[in-house]
Amino acid sequence: MDSLIKFGLIIDILNAKYKTMKKTLLILLLLPLLTITSTAQEKRIKSKVVSATVYSQGAQITRTAKLILDKGENRVVFTNLPPSIDESSIQVSCSDAIIVSVSSQKNMLDSLSQSQEFQKLLGKKKELEKKIKLEQALLQIIDTERDVLLSNKKLVGDQGVKLEDLKNSLIYFKTRLEELERSRVNKEEIIAGLEEDLNRITQQIATQSSQTKTETKEFLVTFKTDNPVSTSAEIKYFTSAAGWYPTYDIRASKINEPLTIQYKGNIYQNTGEKWEKIKLVVSSGNPTNNGTAPQISPWYLDYNNYGPYRTYSSTNYPPTSIRGTVSGTVTSSEDGMPIPGVSVIVKGTNVGCVTDLNGNYRITLPSNASALTYTFVGMKTQELPISSNYMNVSLQSESLQVEELVVTALGVKRGEKATGYAMKKDVNESIPVTKVDYQTSFTFIIDMPYDIPSTGQPICANLNNFEVPSIYRYFSIPKLQSEAFLESRITNWEQFNLLDGEANLYFEDKFVGKSILEVSTADDTLNLSLGKDESVTIKRTKLQSFKEKNLIGTKRSEKREFEIAIRNNKKEPIDLLLKDQIPVTTNEEIKIKDVNEAGATLNSKTGILEWELKLQPGETKKIKFSYTVEYQSGKTLTLE
Asked: Fewest Cβ atoms nearer than 10 Å: which of 132, 208, 439, 547?
């Protein structure tokens, strides 16, 4: 019996030791899995935009984020990033950790535009819809009461209707119907006002709805440290959903004073990001352009060989014959709704604009314009040749493809090279701006925090103000237009880093119109049209008394004489370049004879006449010129 008891005790001890060994073995087996789970745990971090370098098309964004890293590898997910990122441009740096890898992915759950403002708009829309339903119900009650009155307008009784009762009934019907009609008109006005407010709110919601439907991106970054550390990371990337274009305010107070030019940058972004109190840099560069220099091939001359002439492909259009402005509306191909914030750029220039809340745009064309480029985040970019002064465009949605990107450089942060540039500070600015000139571009550094909302609508920043000595001269071709245009001739204009852009013109403190500043086609002197000046009057008249028709044999001879009268109504003397013409011909049967240039310089090849005149205040000058054309009788010529 004792032996059995001892044997039982031994069995219990062995079972206890087995259970202990089993637990220890289980812990040893689970320990690597726990370590792996701990190592693979992701930290989701939000970053903040701190600076942006905005190019004519696109922008480089810099973000920062605070990190608390454990010893070893740390997987950090930077969330809520815009979908328009060029993944090949991603740069991540951290001074206290090694970056093992970087990849990106889409997140369909987050939205960049679920802001309080957007939620308020949705709330206002629901409130307005509720009010409209209530007013429509009250209007229905009014109509119902009116119908009841009209359906019971017959007065009947057993002994007829007394005259007094009839009068009282008619007064009641008349008074009540008038009250109902006034109430009805009042309710209709209230409903119309509410529907107008609802349409306005709906348009504002449509402005942000494209962002609401757009997914965000995330960066998955693996950091490695030897010790726990509290640090920060910097993220840089390029996005196409931003840009800027220049415009100018050009003012001439008097024709004997310098010209004042206000250089403005119109900066826009539709990334979905918050650019609040950021450091802003505006650059004339364009990273989207192909930086590869062209190469020329041998030209083998032979019959039926047309040589290496330039051809125009779908992306290389010839200059258009359309002049003035192009306007239109940009809509979505999916629902036909207007798209606000679309960037419209004249291809190959910095001339551009952005569509308004109704999707409308209007852009002034430079002389070398060939095509317009329409760009909007989440939509396919369209490039169309300029074919009309009115161009409506429909943009299609673009599917964003995301590929993994691995960075092999480990935490190396390089400073930007800025070799061979000069820096100067411009004074008399409404905002402090520093200008930096590089070898192939220049930048304006805005020396104060700036806000650019993600609406696609441009925010105007004053980049520079300067006065330039100018030579003023009036110019007129009265045969085509009987007005005098004031021209400003500017030398040494290269020092101001001007770009092609639309200009608002002011003369003697009055807005006189718009023009295009075309520096890409200028030589050492920049000619700028400042618009019409009504104080200089010009009239061109054909003198009928000198019209002759002489038939001599088979020849017909006709003489034309014109008078141009110019008057200077200004208080200052003016210089005027006056142009007209006489016909030229390459037909031997047609002769131009007896030309009276009236002191003009005649270009015999083109027939252009030029007079350089100086008029004193209040002075009037008259110029008479004439010519005779001899040609075969029975033929028809246009001689005027």
From this structure: 439
Q: Which two tokens stand for residue 579?
A: 């142009």
The CA radius of gyration of the chain, in Å to the nearest whole number, is: 39
Closest CA to 377 of 270, 473, 281, 522: 270
User: In this predicted model, what pLDDT tens digit does every residue of 88-104 receive, in sequence order?
Assistant: 888 999 999 998 888 88
What is the per-residue DSSP string for 83-143?
Answer: TTEEEEEEEEE-TTSEEEEEEEEEESS--TT--HHHHHHHHHHHHHHHHHHHHHHHHHHHH
Distance CA 615, CA 393 (A): 50
**CA dihedral sign of residues 300, 301, 306, 308:** positive
- Rounded Cα–Cα distance for residues 208 and 340 (Å): 9
Q: Which residues of 592-619 are buried (b: 16+ CB within 10 A; e: fewer)?
A: beebebbebeeeeeebbbebebebeeee
Select the highest-mean-pLDDT range: 29-43, 225-239, 536-550.
225-239
Nearest to 395 by CA among 373, 365, 362: 373
b/e map 151-167, b = 16+ CB within 10 Å: eeeeeeeeeeeeeeeee
Cα–Cα distance measured from residue 358 to residue 591, given in angstroms and rounded to the nearest whole number: 59
Instruction: Say what the pLDDT of residue 287 is.
Output: 81
Cα three-residue angle 235-229-35, rounded to 5 degrees = 100
Residue 433: what are its φ and ψ, rounded to 5°?
-135, 135
* DSSP 8-state secondary structure symbol assigned to residue 399: P
Q: Under DSSP, is residue 367 helix (H, G, I), strand (E, B) or coil?
A: coil
Residue 577 binned pLDDT confidence (cut-offs 50, 70, 90): very high
Better-predicted residue by pLDDT, 155 or 79? 79
Strands 442-452 and 275-283 come out as antiparallel
| Burial letters 212-224, b for 16+ CB under 10 A, else e | eebbbbbbbbbbb
Single pTM value for the model: 0.61
Between the alpha carbon of residue 512 and those of residues 249, 485, 505, the distances in Å are: 11, 11, 6
- Asked if residues 239 and 86 have their Cβ atoms less than 8 Å apart, the reply is yes
Q: Across 226-317, where does the E strand assignment appear?
A: 229-239, 242-252, 259-269, 275-283
Amino acid at 168: N
Closest among 570, 582, 578 to 623, alpha carbons compared? 578
